[in-house]
């Protein structure tokens, strides 16, 4: 049985907290813990509980898997099937656009900005060396 990498979880919490432009104090007060606890979790000095991890993901408005990182092995079979079914009906131009979007997301993961909105999910992909953005989702 593999052990959980709490160092990675802590680093992911720090990264996502900073992406949300929150201080440790901001996050702690919204989660109901101390800022010292958040600091210790981010530095892997304390192991975060599942309940607190869920609260952190909810406060940051992100999927908990972003915090768990490589600790979770995600089975993508259903995603592959959904993508294949979607592409079966796509025009060549739509397929090229999808390929461009997928390449950008895979090649430049640090340039992916996702922000949950009340009516849906909005995402923007900024290309390195390109001043434009591609925006998709519900607004």
What's a concise summary of this model?
With 139 residues, the protein is α+β, with helices and mostly antiparallel strands. The chain contains seven helices and three strands; from the N terminus they run H-H-H-H-H-H-H-E-E-E. Helices cover 53% and strands 13% of the residues.
Describe this entry's structure for a reader:
The protein is about 55% helix and about 15% strand. With about 140 residues, it is α+β, with helices and mostly antiparallel strands. It is built from seven helices and three strands; from the N terminus they run αααααααβββ.
Q: Top keywords for this entry?
A:
three-stranded antiparallel β-sheet, 7 helices, alpha+beta, 139 residues, single chain, 13% strand, elongated
How is this fold's topology laid out?
Layout: H1 6-19, H2 24-31, H3 35-42, H4 50-60, H5 65-68, H6 77-88, H7 92-107, E1 112-117, E2 120-126, E3 133-137
Antiparallel strand pairs: 1-2, 2-3
Quickly count the helices.
7
Euclidean distance between termini CA atoms: 43 Å
Helix proportion range: 40-55%
Runs in which pLDDT lies below 50 for 5 or more consecutive residues are: 116-121
- Placed side by side, the strands forming the largest sheet appear as 1-2-3
How much β-strand is present in the residues? 5-15%
Could you spell the SSE succession in H and E letters?
A: HHHHHHHEEE
């Amino acid at each position: 049985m593999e052990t959980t990498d709490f160092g990675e979880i802590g680093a992911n919490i720090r990264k996502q907290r900073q992406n949300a432009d929150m201080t440790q104090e901001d996050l702690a007060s919204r989660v109901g813990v101390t800022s010292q606890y958040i600091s210790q979790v981010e530095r892997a000095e304390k192991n975060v509980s599942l309940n607190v991890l869920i609260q952190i993901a909810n406060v940051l408005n992100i999927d908990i898997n972003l915090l768990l990182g490589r600790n979770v092995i995600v089975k993508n079979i259903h995603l592959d099937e959904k993508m294949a079914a979607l592409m079966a009906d796509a025009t060549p131009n739509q397929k090229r656009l999808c390929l461009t979007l997928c390449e950008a997301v895979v090649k430049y993961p640090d340039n992916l900005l996702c922000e949950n909105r009340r009516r849906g999910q909005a995402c923007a992909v900024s290309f390195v060396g390109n001043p434009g953005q591609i925006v998709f989702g519900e607004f």
